[in-house]
Amino acid sequence: MSEDTPVKGEVLYEGKAKILYATSDPGLVIQYFKDDATAFNAKKTGTIEAKGIINNAFSTKIFRHLEENGVKTHLVKKLSDREQLVRKVTILPVEVVARNRVAGSLARKMGIKEGTEISHPILEFYYKDDALDDPMINADYVTAFGFGTREEIDIIMAEARKINVLLTAFFRKAGIELVDFKLEFGRINDEIVLADEISPDSCRLWDVKTGEKLDKDRFRFDLGRVEESYREVLDRVTEI
Ligand code: TMP
């Protein structure tokens, strides 16, 4: 590691797919990507070989692309196969989902066939709580329960819409349709930045030509070729 890389400290938090470590710099943490996979709020568990390595590389590439296009993120730099140095943020307990086509829970909720087109993107909020199955909430819940301010919601929604435009174009160059994805934002002092990860775990990615699913739905629904699909999307975006 280079001289400006702080020393790795104790585990601050272990989540389903990542571990956060403290560092010798109080403003920075190390985000470690595991191979563990869960679905349906951890009701299904397993591992996807080398997923941590793939998601780290994938997410680093995406976050850099977003930074280059004016999106503020927590990423400082990729440290190793499975580790990123990131700014320490307070994660808002709100998952932001952007959708460009009907799939997943939207198809189930509305009784509309997966793959159906929608006339404009949809943004949704979910309260991050596995025990409650991440219930869908709205902006009033965010402010009423003190998860964030109205100003923060406005920033998050504007950033999510901008990220959707940037990433839709980015993936299209790789022959991939960005069907939907989940974002998490964090707060540093009064600043809101994009945090967590963007990977085949948190996106629906369909091959533009064949419609083949190249994301975590392969694990969720036992579609086979899980590792191969993760590797394939990484290879395709690496070439962009
Ligand atoms: P959904 O259709 O199951 O609501 O998922 C929408 C998108 O959000 C999909 O790309 C997968 C992603 N997602 C997560 O990253 N984490 C989650 O906990 C859930 C439910 C969805």
Protein model, in words:
This protein is an alpha+beta fold and 240 residues long. The chain has two domains: 8-87, Phosphorylase Kinase, domain 1, CATH 3.30.200.20; 92-225, ATP-grasp fold, B domain (D-amino Acid Aminotransferase, Chain A, domain 1, 2-Layer Sandwich), CATH 3.30.470.20. Helices cover 30% and strands 36% of the residues. The protein is built from six helices and 13 strands. The strands form three sheets. Strands 8, 9, 10, 11, 12 and 13 form a six-stranded antiparallel sheet that branches. It has a five-stranded antiparallel sheet with strand order 1-2-3-7-6. A hairpin with a 3-residue loop joins strand 1 and strand 2. Helix 1 runs parallel beside helix 6. The protein is globular, with a radius of gyration of 17 Å. The relative contact order is 0.16. The structure holds thymidine-5'-phosphate. Thymidine-5'-phosphate binds at residues 97, 103-106, 134, 180-182, 202-204.
Give me some keywords for this one:
single chain, 240 residues, alpha+beta, Phosphorylase Kinase, domain 1, D-amino Acid Aminotransferase, Chain A, domain 1, 6-stranded antiparallel β-sheet, 5-stranded antiparallel β-sheet, 30% helix, binds thymidine-5'-phosphate
Task: Give a brief outline of the structure.
The protein has 240 residues and is α+β, with helices and mostly antiparallel strands.
Average pLDDT taken over every residue: 97
Bound molecules: thymidine-5'-phosphate
Helix content: 25-40%
CATH class identity of the largest domain: Alpha Beta
Full CATH superfamily name of the largest domain: ATP-grasp fold, B domain
Contiguous uncertain segments of 5+ residues: none
Sheet-strand content, in percent, reads 35-45%
Compute the gyration radius: what is it? Answer: 17 Å
Care to count the β-strands? 13
From the coordinates shown, what is the CATH architecture of the largest domain? 2-Layer Sandwich
CATH topology of the largest domain, by name, is D-amino Acid Aminotransferase, Chain A, domain 1
Count the domains. 2
The profile of the biggest β sheet is: 6 strands, antiparallel
Number of helices: 6
Shape: globular
Instruction: Sketch the topology as an H/E string, one letter per element.
Output: EEEEEHEEEHEEHHEEEHH
Structural class, from helix and strand content?
Answer: alpha+beta
Compute the separation of the termini in Å.
Answer: 27 Å
